[in-house]
Amino acid sequence: MYNRLFGWTYTLLTSLVSLVVVPVILIRGLFGDKRLLEYLGIYGDRVRDDRESIWVHASSVGEVKLAGLLIEQLRKTDPDCRLVLSVVTPSGRKLADAEIASMAEIYYLPLDLNPCLKIAFRKIRPRKIVLTETELYPNFLKRALQADISLYLINGRISDRSFRKYQAVRELFGYLLKSF
């Protein structure tokens, strides 16, 4: 089961890091690219659709290409479905905006902090979440599980190096991986 000590430790560490990261994002988002505020779960008036969605997550360019194929198929099978794609990197965002924006809403994935995730989940309202790789965010996945949202993992390869890292925290990730 979810190791409470590890969960608390992870949340504490991400909260401490956020003391530096959040102000930087706020300043850059308020005085530059407003889309950076999406890392905090702040979407402004961009989210106008209150239907439940299928949320596809692709971190960067390679995964965005894969996600584009998936979204294209989902759009064909259910043309009225609300599709949301989240990305992490600016290059992934640029590609998604250019090639996928006509099929899905595009946002940055919020930081793995509970307040940011709470806002994002309330706005995006996912009924299913599809991850295009094994870049796992514990608070994100835990929130999805608590909300009884179906989780799917495609292209879930793990390198030998990453496997050793996951082994070190297997109590946490074992629980999360079993939920897909």
How would you portray this structure in words?
By secondary structure, the chain is an alpha/beta fold. It is built from seven helices and five strands; from the N terminus they run αβαβαβαβαβαα. Strands 3-2-1-4-5 form a five-stranded parallel sheet, sandwiched between helices. Strand 2, helix 3 and strand 3 form a beta-alpha-beta unit. The longest helix has 28 residues, at 4-31. It is globular, with a radius of gyration of 16 Å. The two termini are 15 Å apart. The mean pLDDT is 86.
Quick description:
This protein is α/β, with parallel strands linked by helices and 180 residues long.
Which structural traits does this protein have?
single chain, 5-stranded parallel sheet, alpha/beta, globular, 7 helices, 180 residues
Topology:
Layout: H1 4-31, E1 53-57, H2 61-77, E2 82-87, H3 90-99, E3 105-108, H4 114-124, E4 126-131, H5 138-146, E5 150-153, H6 160-168, H7 170-177
Parallel strand pairs: 1-2, 1-4, 2-3, 4-5
Helix pairs in contact: 2-3, 4-5
Q: Provide the gyration radius in Å.
A: 16 Å
Structural class: alpha/beta
Number of strands: 5
Helix amount = 40-55%
Distance between the termini: 15 Å
* Principal-axis shape: globular
Q: Estimate the mean pLDDT confidence.
A: 86
pLDDT < 50 stretches = none
Order of helices and strands: HEHEHEHEHEHH
Portion in beta strands: 5-15%
Oligomer: single chain
